[in-house]
Queue: 2 jobs
Job 1
Amino acid sequence: MRTKLAAGNWKMNGLTEALSELAGMADAAAGASEVLICPPFTLVGAAAAAASGIAIGGQDCHAAASGAHTGDVSAAMLKDAGASHVILGHSERRTDHNERNSDVNAKCVAAWDAGLTVVLCVGESLEQREAANTLEIIGGQLAASVPDGATGHNLVIAYEPIWAIGTGKVPSTDQIGEVHDFMRARLEKRFGSGVGRSVRLLYGGSVKPSNATEIFAVSNVDGALVGGASLKAADFVPIIEALNAASQDG
Ligand code: 13P
């Protein structure tokens, strides 16, 4: 039985006043699902202090534990600031910072060493989907980005088709189900059925209150990684509530 997870990625959004949104999410966060907010680095410590019943995560970390890496943040620093999770391998990091699967893999090891749970992102581009390469791309990203040693506690996978992020375009429920079933099978094959079945699989890309319920009904969808609609309690609370309802449905 996997506890469902509603995760919010605030990306490069949020000044101190945005922390007030966390209070508005607290009641919904007391339901059956886990709730995670990943604010920008500058707010991680304050968010961890302010949040009640909401886990806090970073959006990236360096692969090294410490050292001469100006501007970077280590996994231990995130943990020290109160984070329990870190997003790694988001397509915006892969694109903006040329992160390869091997970089994501090394960061994941560092995050695990620091005791963080990793929300590791995979996803295909529109060209790759149109060329019918989606499963090959996702399989390759999973194989190369996820280190040995994954467990249901230290790893969450987020399937985020690049073409669905911030665009309002969402894959069909059949398309989401195909990828999630494929990821589940790959994880079971590599890590054994016990671990493979315990890793949570999130869908991300234009999740909104209006489409959350149908997405959460798809097989092997254990929650969502939400960008824009996680910034305001008014948008994120209905998504958490839809996930709480899906938890009750089993
Ligand atoms: P949107 O929900 O804004 O499409 O962003 C998805 C995302 O990239 C979450 O990591």
Note: The mean pLDDT is 97.
Job 2
Amino acid sequence: MKLAEALNRSRAILAQNAIEDAPLEAELLLRHVLNINRTQLYLDLEHELSPQDEKTFRALVERRLGGEPTAYITRHREFYGLDFYVNPHTLIPRPESELLVETALRLAQDRPSTIADIGTGCGAIAVSLALELPGAKIYAIDISAAALEVAAINCQRHSVADRVSLLQGDMLKPVAEPIDLIIANLPYVRESELTPNNFEPLIALDGGAGGTESIARLCRQARSKLAEGGSMLLEIGQGQSEAITGLLDSLFPDGAIEILADLSGIERVISLSLSEIKVAR
Ligand code: GLN
């Protein structure tokens, strides 16, 4: 069978089984079997697929049909134009989380800063920021030791291990110094909405009964850790902006709050900025 035919067949099978991005996913799986990049795949479309590779490819497509995400099968995921190693100990980075990175860059560009990425997972956010902000000091914190091992691999892969400090612990507790920019994609899925067939770690998704428990806890911790003039960026789930902005309002009465929508128009990031000089009250 030619590569083109294998690709087309698997695209059709994935699409028939309601895999959202079937054309791309089939391509990623085939490239993984052959260990080739995109350009090479398209140059080789008329080449024959060996029977052994065909068998391996079929098995991977089967796994995908069983619900396993392509990123876990291939152990790769692209985020912010960079290639990250992922495994089932971390959430698979989502394109909408790039909004956190873009917003952080807008805020941090003007001055060297201390940044903390809370719930770093595979380290996608911390590594992306480290590459864009060579002057920044970055803490990447996670409660999961297994996730931090993945983040360490990505720091090495992108040569930022000397500027990203990986810390295990409960959100901001492992850092003592004031932080200029706190950035977090914490678990925010409502307990009742967690799907039983989830391949991703529950600890990275489960936001408690209301979905906002972890985010709320970080907001409270930030009170003693966010530097004067500092900012905090929180990724949130659909419909959670009111609860979180209400909480931030009460915790940081002088803070300026902004809500940013993702490319689908869903309120996705809440930005809190403290003023430089504390107003006497
Ligand atoms: N966006 C993810 C999802 O909908 C949730 C990520 C998270 O809880 N931080 O599956």
Note: Residues 178 and 227 are 5 Å apart (CA to CA).
